[in-house]
Amino acid sequence: MKIVFNSSPLIFLARLDFLAIFIESGDEFYLPQVVKEEINTKQDEASNYIDRLVANHQLIVQGVKLLSLAHRINEHLGRGESEAIALGVELQTDYSG
User: Fold this and answer.
1) CA separation for the pair 27, 35 (Å, rounded)
2) pTM of the predicted model, to two decimals?
3) Which domain holds residue 17?
């Protein structure tokens, strides 16, 4: 199963110590590059944990190719949310959140 994360759900799951449950499931987890940048604007325990998951290839950071879709969605949502949705469409994921 492919899953794309936006910053807020990822940070909340990390802070609540539930992210490991998802990561250990064997599914593929992605986040757009801009979401990674949003998470790293605040260096805390959650962002450090997420960085370790990225370094261990348990979370895959990927750039969005469907930029026109992301820009259209960005008229109504934030950039991270827009790129997460666009990446979900691009990768044909099972879930985006």
Assistant:
1) 19
2) 0.86
3) 2-96
Total domains in the chain come to 1
Structure tokens at 26: 């064997």
Tens digit of pLDDT at every position of the chain (97 positions): 899 999 999 999 999 989 988 888 889 999 999 999 999 998 999 999 999 999 999 999 999 998 888 888 888 888 899 999 999 999 998 766 6
CB 35 within 8 A of CB 83: yes
Residue 32: give its domain's CATH number: 3.40.50.1010
The answer to whether 73 and 85 are in contact (CB under 8 A) is yes
Strand partners, 29: 3
